[in-house]
Amino acid sequence: MTHNQYTLESPSAPRRTRLRELWQLFRENKLAILGLIIFVLFFMTAVSGVILTSGQRPVFDPAMVRLQEKLLPPLTRPHLESLHPTEVPTLGIYLFGTDDLGRDVFARMLQGAWVSLTVGFVAVGISVLVGIFMGGIAGYFGQEYICLDHILIAFILSAGGTLLSIGSIGSGSACLGVGLLCIVYRLFSKILGEKLQSPGLLHKKAISIDTIIMRAVDIMLCFPSFFLILTVVALVPASMYNIMIVIGLTSWMGTTRFVRAEFLSLREQDFVTAAKALGVGNFRIIFRHMMPNAVAPVLVSATIGIATAILTEAGLSFLGFGVPPPHATWGNILSDGKRFIFDAPWLTFIPGIGILIVVLCFNLFGEGLRDAMNPKLRERG
What angle do CA 347, 348, 352 make, to 5 degrees? Predict the structure, then answer.
């Protein structure tokens, strides 16, 4: 046998991409697969819901009032003799019954699915972006120190902004002007290679960037998240967009900690040292080389965070601080039904079970994703 023949006939190890290996490990978890299937069904339901309940003449009208058909149980056929032809439900049956105004609960659940999905994804998107930025800065530039003059400039600018916000135009503008002059002076001094003509005390290292960010995380974690969100929502105008922003800006702390921990371990790796030696810029190192290796725990955190955001929105809507009418959400359907818990229990059970199933599916999917991405957990299992 020649060398070429031996080379052609020698067995080769099967090549599997990282994504294929991840899927192989993920599908061994049956509960995670169940969670993924439910999530796909929920996503399809939400997308079809926004299509079928929108427009001038929607297929399912969640806002149509039929007082003569109020509080009908699920699977009840409409009384055609008392309804106008345009008021007849599309399916010819009230699949989930009607509420106290005769509105079709199935149509309102369809519309609420899209609202819950949108709030969950957008809120988590905001929290992930803020968490990645803060965690990346803390993990990569954490050992850099802020001098006293930096703190002084930040304080002057903050004071100027505060004075402007309360209507003190003259004082606020003066503070902002002084702050901007200080920044310009520092930039010119750095360009010219000269030291600032100021006392040496102002150049003393005061506090590290990592300490500032992590103490901010600790302060945010000291507040009960739901009550903090409830307080902010009560102060800002009621809007679906405000709900997304508030939930996102009060839930970034976990992502920050995950990203910081990953960056602290990756910062000392050889590939980062090699990139620095080649003169690669800091932001390219962070986003091109380090971030792809630190994204795994962020994905898991984001998946579970979607469930938390949906649950938070439902709780706010139940208390009357959530998405305002005319949008129907599962939380306000649940809130409307609490007054008829004995007369019309389906108004409570249907949205409640819907929230339970969706939150559970995201949690199962997130746990399965975590196990598949974490080799230590796989070995232990």
Answer: 125
- For residue 188, the model assigns a pLDDT of 65
Cβ atoms within 10 Å, residue 256: 25
- Residues contacting 58, CB < 8 A, separation 6+: 52, 107
Q: Read off φ and ψ for residue 298, nearest 5 degrees.
A: -65, -40
What is the phi-psi region of residue 73: left when phi exceeds 0, alpha when psi lies from -120 to 50, beta otherwise? beta
Of residues 93 and 206, the one with the higher pLDDT is 93
Cα separation, 354 vs 358, in Å, equals: 6
For the chain, how far is it from start to end, CA to CA, in angstroms? 46
**Could you give the angle at the alpha carbon of 218 between the alpha carbons of 217 and 221, nearest 5°?**
85
Three-state DSSP class for 147?
A: strand
Quick one: angle between helices 225-235 and 291-319, nearest 10? 60
The helix or strand, by DSSP H or E, that contains position 39, with its residue range, turns out to be: helix 30-52
Average pLDDT over residues 61-84: 85
* CA quadruple 137, 142, 145, 149: dihedral sign: positive
Tell me which residue has tokens 């921990």: 261
Question: Residue 15 CB: number of other CB atoms within 10 A?
Answer: 6
Chain segment 4-58, per-residue pLDDT in tens:
554 444 455 455 666 777 778 778 888 889 988 998 999 999 899 888 888 788 8
- pTM comes to 0.77
CA distance 91 to 95: 8
Question: In this structure, are residues 357 and 34 in contact, taking their beta carbons and an 8 Å threshold?
Answer: no
Mean pLDDT score across all residues of the chain:
79
